[in-house]
Amino acid sequence: MANIVQFENVGLRYGTGPETLSDVSFSLRSGAFYFVTGASGAGKTSLLKLLYLAQRPTRGVVRLFGEDTVTLPRKRLPGFRRRIGVVFQDFRLVPHLSSYDNIALPLRVAGIPESDIEAPVREMLAWVGLTDRGKAKPLTLSGGEQQRIAIARAVIGRPEILVADEPTGNVDPDMAERLLHLFESLNRLGTTVVVATHDFHLLNRIPTAHMMRLDKGQIHDPTGALRHPAGSTE
Amino acid sequence: MKFSLNPAAPDRRLLDRSRRARAMSWIMAIMLFLTVLAGALGLGMFAARGSLDRQLSGRLTVQIVEPDAAARDRDTQAMADAFRKMPSVKRVEVVDRERLAELVRPWLGDAGLDPDLPMPAMIDVDLSDGSDAAVSRVAQAAKAIYADARVDRHAQWLSPVRSFMTTMSWLAAGLVLLMATATAAVVLLVARSGLDTHRDTIEVLHMLGATDIQVARLFQRRIAFDTLLGGLLGAGAAMGLVAFLQSRLGLLGSEMLSGVALQQRDWFLLLMLPILFALMATFAARVAVLRALGRVL
Ligand SMILES: Nc1ncnc2c1ncn2[C@@H]1O[C@H](COP(=O)(O)OP(=O)(O)OP(=O)(O)O)[C@@H](O)[C@H]1O
Ligand SMILES: [Mg+2]
Q1: Per DSSP, what are the bridge partners of residue A195?
Q2: How far is CA B84 from the centre of its chain?
Q3: What is the spatial distance between Cα A33 and Cα A211, in angstroms, rounded to a whole number?
Q4: Nearest by CB to A94, which of B2, B201, B294?
Q5: Which site among A105, A118, A153 would you substitute to test the B interface, given the most B Cβ atoms closer than 10 Å to its Cβ?
Q6: Which of B141, B123, B135 is nearest to B63 (CA)?
Q7: How far apart are CA B171 and CA B160, in angstroms?
Q8: Which of B207, B214, B294 sits opposite A86 (nearest CB)?
Q9: CATH code of the domain covering residue B136
Q10: In which region does residue B96 sit, left (phi positive, over 0), alpha (psi from -120 to 50) or beta (all else)?
Q11: Quick one: CA dihedral A163, A166, A167, A168, positive or negative?
C-alpha cells in the first residue's frame, strides 16, 4: 500500500513560543485506520491541522497524496482539501444553516448539482441517526447531535482521508461505538481514517487500527508497533 | 456554487443577512437619492444651457440711432434687404414702431406713440449659425449702410445666466464624483466588517475546499443585491421628485426654465447611476474579500 501521508522531521511553532511539534516523522498508508492519542495539550489537534492543511509546518516536509504541501501554491489547496474530510474538535458547524445544509456544504462547495445532493444528505442523516433533525439549527442540537452532524459533513464527500479530532468526545459510550463503526465501514470502502482521541477505551474496538502516541509534541511509536509489531498488519 | 437568482437558493443562505447588510441598503438608498438629485441638476443645467445656446446664439438686434426719420427708414429698409440676401441669415424682421412704443411705454407712457419722438429703428436677425464670423459679417453689412449701427448679440445679455448654468453643471458633476467615492469607501468598510462577521463561516468554507473566488462571489452577490436594492429605492425616489419638480416648472411656462426639462436620454443616464454604483460596490467588495482571503492559508 502506498503512503498517502508522509511527515519528515516536521516542526510546528505558534508565533514565537516553543515548538508544539518537533521532529515528527511518520507515514500513513492508504486505506489504513489510525488513532492518534496523547494527553491534552500534547499536540494532537496541531498534528491534524497540518494534515488537513489548516497550518503549514515551520520546518520539515508534509507530503500529502504524494505532493509536498509546504511548497504547494495556495491556489491548489482547495483541490487538496476537497479530498480530505475533517471532523473538527469544536465541530465548526455553520450556526445559521440547518443540519441538512451543513451536511450538504461540501457537496455544494464542490459544485454538485442540487438534484444530486438531497439523496446523499438524507442518507447521511439516517446514518448518524438524525433523520428527523434535518431542519434543526446546530444550536438547538445537543453536543452529541452536533458532533454527529459534523461527522456526516466530513464523510459525505467520500474523502480519501478522514481526519477526526475527538469525534466521540461528546457522546455516550453506545453512540461512540456506533460512530466508530461508521468510521470503520468508511475505512472498509477505502478511506484512510485518522482519529485523535484520548479515550483509550475506543482503541481496542478496532483491532486492525494503528496507534500513534504524541507526548509533548513528539511522536512515539509511529508505526503503531505498540499494538501491532511492525509488519504484523497489512 | 453556481449563480442563482432564486432568493431561497442554498448558497444564498450561507451568509446570513446581518443588520449591517440592511444598514448598507439604507445608506445606498440615501446616497443614490442625493446622487441622482445632483445628477439631475447637472443634466438639467446642461440641457438648459444647450437650449439657451440654441435659442440665442444666432439672434441679433441691429439698432439704428438716427434722428432723421426719413434717413432712418431708408437705411433700415436697405439693411433689411441686405441681410435677407446673406446666406447665413434665416429671418429678418424690422421691429415696427408700435411694438417699440409698446416696449418703451413703461418709461415714457403714451409719449412713445408721438411720431415726432426720435426712436431708434431695430432689426431682429436670426442666423443659422451663431459663430463670431457670421455675426461680424452681419455687423459689417450693417455698418456699410449706417456707420453707427449697433449690433447686440442676445447671447451676450444672458451670458451671466449661461455661466451660472455651467458652474452648476460642474458642481453637480463634482457632487456625483464625491458621492461615488464615499460609496466606494462605505462598501469597502461594509465588506471588511462583513468578513469579520462571517469569519467562522468563511473558515469552514475554506476548510471544505472552497476557493477564494467562491467565497468572494458570495460576498459580491450579497453586496450587489443589497446595494442595488437600496440604490434603486433611493434613485426611484429622487427621480420621482425630479419628475414632480419638472412638472411644476412646466406650469411656470417660462421658455428658459422649460429648457431644464430632462430628455429620455437623461432619465436613462440617471437610471444607470444605481446600477453603476452597485457594480462599483460589487467590485470593491470583491477586492476587499480577495485581499483579506489572500492573507490566510
Ligand atoms: N493557535 C494556537 N496558538 C498558540 N498556541 C497554540 C495554538 N493551538 C495550540 N496551541 C498550543 O499547542 C499545544 C498543543 O495544542 P493542541 O491543541 O494541539 O493539543 P491537543 O493534543 O489537541 O489537546 P486536547 O487533547 O486538549 O485537544 C498546546 O500547548 C496549545 O496551547
Ligand atoms: Mg485537540
Answers
A1: A35, A164
A2: 37
A3: 9
A4: B201
A5: A105
A6: B123
A7: 16
A8: B207
A9: 3.30.70
A10: beta
A11: positive
| pLDDT by position in tens, chain A (length 234) | 588 999 999 999 998 989 999 989 888 999 999 999 988 889 999 999 999 999 899 999 999 999 999 888 988 999 999 999 999 988 999 998 999 999 999 999 998 998 999 999 999 999 888 999 999 999 999 888 999 999 999 999 999 999 999 988 878 888 888 888 889 988 999 999 999 988 777 888 888 888 888 888 888 865 554 444 344 443
Query: Can you tell me the distance from the alpha carbon of A126 to that of A98, in angstroms, rounded to the nearest whole number?
Result: 15
Q: Are residues B88 and B226 in the same domain?
A: no
Q: Does B5 touch chain A (CB under 8 A)?
A: no
Give the global pTM.
Answer: 0.72
Kindly state the helix (H) or strand (E) to which residue A28 belongs, with its residue range: strand A19-29
Say if B71 falls within a structural domain: yes
What's the domain count of chain B? 2
Would you give the DSSP letter of residue A162?
A: E
Residue type, B107: W
Q: Which residues of A touch B (CB under 8 A)?
A: 52-56, 74, 77-82, 86, 88, 92-97, 101, 104-106, 108-111, 114, 153
In terms of Cβ atoms closer than 10 Å to its own Cβ (0-12, 13-18, 19+), residue A70 is middle
- B281 domain-assigned: yes
A205 to A5, A142, A233, B246: CA distances (angstroms): 24, 25, 16, 83
Cβ-contact A63, A6 below 8 angstroms: yes
In which residue are the cell numbers 427621480 written? B239
Cβ of A14 less than 6 Å from ligand 1: yes
Domain stops at, among B85, B115, B147: B147
CA–centroid distance for B267 within its chain: 10
In b/e form, how buried is each residue of B257-288, taking b as 16+ CB within 10 angstroms? eebbebeeebeebbeebbeebbebbbebbbbb
Mutate to test the pocket of ligand 1, among A46, A200, A219 (most ligand atoms within 8 A of CB): A46
Measure the CA–CA gap between A24 and B272, rounded to whole angstroms: 60
Residues B76 and B143 in one domain: yes
β-pairing, A33-38 with A192-196? parallel
Domain containing B128: what range? 66-147
Q: What are phi and psi of A207, to 5 degrees?
A: -65, -25
Per DSSP, A64 falls in state E
Give yes or no: residues B44 and B171 share one domain.
yes
Distance of CA B4 to the CA centre of its chain: 37
Q: Do residues A165 and A196 touch, judged by C-beta distance below 8 A?
A: yes
Q: List Cα–Cα distances, B163 to A219, B41, B157, in angstroms.
A: 83, 15, 12
Q: Are B255 and B54 in contact (CB under 8 A)?
A: no
Name the one residue in this structure whose C-alpha cell is 444647450.
B50
